[in-house]
Amino acid sequence: MQADLELLRELIATTPGIVSRPGRGRPEAVIRETEAATGPLPRSYRWWLAAYGEGSLRGCPIATVEPVEGLGEPGLTEGWSGGDRLWFHEDDDHGRHGFALDQAVDGEWPVVVQSPFTDEEQVVADSFAGFLTVWTALAAGLREGPNPAVARLWRATPGLRLPDGGTLSGPHTFRARNEAWEVSTYAPHWALVGEDGGGAGLFMRRHGRDRSSLYRLAPGALGGDVAEQGELLGADLFDWLDESPSG
Question: Strand runs (DSSP E) across the chain, as ranges?
């Protein structure tokens, strides 16, 4: 699944702990020069380099490519020694993060974290966009997502804009929208995961066996069991997305 880059831009702009440098994006020629050494860079990371060039997460720099003249920042290739990992972020407390170059899927590379204590690796996201999204979710106290289906979505993208004008929420908007609908009061076993183009809510269960079905519920109708009050859109969030006009 490709990342929604406009929602990614929103997440970057509104998430404490992610620092970007608008106006310092790297020229295409500089990015291509780096790719001559590393091979193609992941799509969403390449977008980050072109849009911002520089930035940090939790106060630790995100690797950039060879510098624009006068900025004096280290280049990505200086810390890269070849092999099947391209390390782009290191945090003394949480390990270092890198792209698994041997596991590319549809122009993206999974992000792995290497433990600073055991050197063991674990895949944490499907892409650079997903890495920033999962980090935002964890920092916001949402774990990796309110249920496994949304967690899977967030591993790739900070939400999605839907063909009808609606949106599947990312972690940067999830809590505020659920609070606005008072979901914890009126449907505590459910999560508002998005809204359609007409303002109706898109809901999924937080608990129980069925945490993959997606329901639509009109504004003002929330209360009790969403499955009884709402409209079932699909038994599986990702099948429903695949069947949508833009799927």
Answer: 18-20, 55-57, 60-61, 85-91, 95-100, 111-114, 121-125, 160-161, 167-168, 190-195, 201-205, 214-217, 231-234
CB 147 within 8 A of CB 191: yes
- Provide the terminal-to-terminal Cα distance of the chain, rounded to the nearest Å: 10
**What pTM does this model have?**
0.92
How many residues are recorded in the chain? 247
For residue 99, the Cα-to-chain-centroid distance in whole angstroms is 15
In whole angstroms, what is the distance from residue 115 CA to residue 91 CA?
A: 10
**CA–CA distance, 126 with 99 (Å, rounded to integer):** 9
Are residues 68 and 177 both part of a single domain? Answer: no
Rounded (to 5) percent helix, strand, coil in the chain = 35, 25, 45
- Domain containing residue 46: 5-138
pLDDT tens track, the chain, 247 positions: 899 999 999 999 999 999 999 999 999 988 998 888 788 999 999 999 999 998 999 999 999 887 545 544 445 655 565 678 898 998 878 889 999 988 999 999 999 999 888 889 999 999 999 999 999 999 999 999 999 999 999 999 999 999 999 999 999 999 999 999 999 999 999 999 999 999 999 999 999 889 999 999 998 899 889 999 999 999 999 999 998 764 4
Element (DSSP H or E) covering residue 240: helix 237-243
Give the domain-ending residue among 103, 138, 173. Answer: 138
